Amino acid sequence: MTTYCNFHARSIADPTEFWGTEAERIHWHTPFTQVLDDSRPPFARWFIGGTTNLCYNAIDRHLPERGAQEALIYISTETGAERRFTYAQIFAEVNRMAATMLAMGVQRGDRVLIYMPMIPEAMLAMLASARIGAIHSVVFGGFAAGNLASRIDDAQPALIVSADAGSRAGRVIPYKPLLDEALLETRAPQPKVLLVDRGLAPLPLFEGRDALYADASAPHGDTIVACAWLESNEASYILYTSGTTGRPKGVQRDVGGYAVALATSIDYLFGGKAGDVMFTASDIGWVVGHSYIVYAPLLAGMTTVMYEGLPVRPDGGVWWRMVERLKINLMFTAPTAIRVLKKQDPALMRMSDLSSLRALFLAGEPLDEPTAHWIERALDKPVVDNYWQTETGWPMLTLPRGLDGIDIPPAKLGAPGVPVYGYQLSVCNERTGERCAAGQKGVIALDYPLPPGCMSTIWGDDERYVKTYWSNFLGRVAYSTFDWGVQDGDGFVTILGRTDDVINVAGHRLGTREIEESLSRHPAVAEVAVVGVRDSLKGQVAFGFVVLRDPARAEEAMDRLALEGELMQTVDRQLGSVARPARVLFVGLLPKTRSGKLLRRAIAALAEGREPGDLTTIEDPGALHQIRVALGLASPT
Ligand code: AMP
């Protein structure tokens, strides 16, 4: 039997042969003339000259065989809605949406920004954009006006698709006021707005700009829209993600490479086959949602389950009852959800028949050993960790579950797995780029070229792409993941946290700079540092340390409390409650180096009850004492 190590080596030694064969999984309108163009590092182009379409591959291609099979099952435990679409029905709905977009003036190459709750129309809007060759950019519905405005500024959409409201834990969250505020803030040309009315919140319309989907789509019920055949390397979508600056990065993805990478991964990594039912409990605003709620399951002819709600409402058995009723075969979520479920009565899980379920996949944040143990024992099914990021679009490390006839090494707790085929992944010295010895900590890097499906550039900014990701090592051109890791002698890599100021709260990636900028907008704030602090439920939470313009304002406990509330509201309004710090603490001084750089790592260490580490460069050690006092670890004198 071939070992996985050999299989991986083959994908690296001859990428043209490997990916050229895998490319047969999708439909090419015009065949490609070259598998890989690696003549302009660090940019890589896949399947040159080939034309294809993501929507065609996700839907049209399956119609002859699977027209009557369900493509999408939508369940909302927030509104009680359940909607089902066969492939034939989703084909009709996507065409209606595509025709509506065209009628509103959207053209090939235009951006369509999607700011939606978890409703089927969000997915229809993505597929309809893909159909007409427009570039979608989904903005997570939990984000607020400031986040939305910066993304509108950057993407300059011709159309925004949105809805009246989302709902979380039974609380209606109106979207329209946030969208209106963002559109007032933005400097981009005013786009058209298409709105789905769920009947949850008032939906005032701006004459000439806003249209209701029900009205605008009415004339297009039976229209069939031809697919735009895009060259494999044209942009399919932009997905914004956080980095070290306050300015979000628009991760740009191609068409053909992404389709091939996903079609391969759903089979080889997840063991997903046509006809299977997959439930990915994530949000379409994140990369997991793009890849494994929307595109990969449909590319493979599976049924995808889209869910609006929490894992514990109405009770902790809700997901397991769905597994039984919908005969779910594959499930995918983030460790946070499992940590939430761990607090529930395990009997709730045993009350459902889980025999259809083959495996549970987890990603997005570190999977701690107690949680991994608990869920594996409770489910009695394989639990598979996989490590990746918005930029890569699909897993970099895991243990493949669908590679029949290949000898896969046994799992090791604490490590997501071994490098996935196509990725030349190594752990290397953070400065020189030299490979680390087994057991030695370093940065996880990828050698050129990145495999198909990974980001092609930062939207509108090739230079930033090269500078941000490919210029971090002195002696080597390699892509930095900005994650620390350590690789053992068997190739297993353990993730040890970010090298930059990005934090991961309940699987949501947030930039501490963005939160700092938002807090700084409050007139009382002179200076602020935001750090990630370990949390047993959410993985990490944000703590804000604030220096006030007038320190007397925080002298009284009541004043401090009121100010803390105001500051949290500022973040809520700007970025959304996902980014709200768990605590805001007031200090007179922040610890900095003599050159003025914030010592965030030292602050985070103190907040986690650890020693602050190397402080040779600190300007005023008294600042650390202030942090300790604010945390209640020391008295003021
Ligand atoms: P995002 O781009 O939002 O998917 O976040 C990607 C980041 O989440 C990675 O760079 C890691 O820091 C972290 N991450 C994702 N998956 C895992 C995992 N399986 N184990 C540990 N960290 C992970």
The biggest sheet, with number of strands, parallel, antiparallel or mixed sense and barrel status, is:
7 strands, mixed
By CATH, the superfamily of the largest domain comes out as ANL, N-terminal domain
Instruction: Determine and state the CATH class of the largest domain.
Output: Alpha Beta
Number of strands: 34
From the N-terminal CA to the C-terminal CA, the straight-line distance is 69 Å
Structural class by secondary-structure content:
alpha/beta
Strand adjacency order, main sheet: 6-5-18-17-19-20-21
What is the count of structural domains?
A: 2
Proportion in helices:
25-40%
Radius of gyration, in angstroms, nearest whole number? 24 Å
CATH architecture annotation of the largest domain? 3-Layer(aba) Sandwich
Percent range for β-strand residues: 25-35%
Number of separate helices? 20
Low-pLDDT stretches are: none
Ligands in the model, by name, code or SMILES, are: adenosine monophosphate
Q: Roughly what is the average pLDDT, rounded to an integer?
A: 95
Family: Belongs to the ATP-dependent AMP-binding enzyme family.
Domain AMP-dependent synthetase/ligase: 65-446
Keywords: ATP-binding, Ligase, Nucleotide-binding
InterPro entries: ACAS_N, AMP-bd_C, AMP-bd_C_sf, AMP-binding_CS, AMP-dep_synth/lig_dom, ANL_N_sf, Propion_PrpE
Secondary structure: elements and pairs:
Blueprint: E1 2-3, H1 4-13, H2 15-22, E2 34-40, E3 43-48, E4 51-52, H3 54-58, H4 63-66, E5 70-76, E6 82-86, H5 87-103, E7 111-115, H6 120-132, E8 135-138, H7 145-155, E9 159-163, E10 165-168, E11 171-174, H8 176-185, E12 192-196, E13 210-212, H9 213-217, E14 230-231, E15 237-241, E16 249-253, H10 256-268, E17 277-280, H11 287-299, E18 303-308, H12 318-326, E19 330-333, H13 335-342, H14 347-350, E20 359-363, H15 369-379, E21 383-386, E22 397-398, E23 406-407, E24 418-419, E25 425-428, E26 441-447, E27 457-458, H16 462-470, E28 478-487, E29 493-498, E30 502-505, E31 508-511, H17 512-520, E32 525-535, E33 539-548, H18 557-574, E34 583-586, H19 600-607, H20 622-630
Parallel strand pairs: 1-23, 5-18, 7-8, 7-9, 9-12, 12-13, 17-18, 17-19, 19-20, 20-21, 33-34
Antiparallel strand pairs: 2-3, 4-14, 5-6, 10-11, 15-16, 16-27, 22-24, 25-26, 26-28, 28-29, 30-31, 32-33
Helix pairs in contact: 1-2, 5-6, 7-8, 10-11, 13-15
This protein binds adenosine monophosphate.
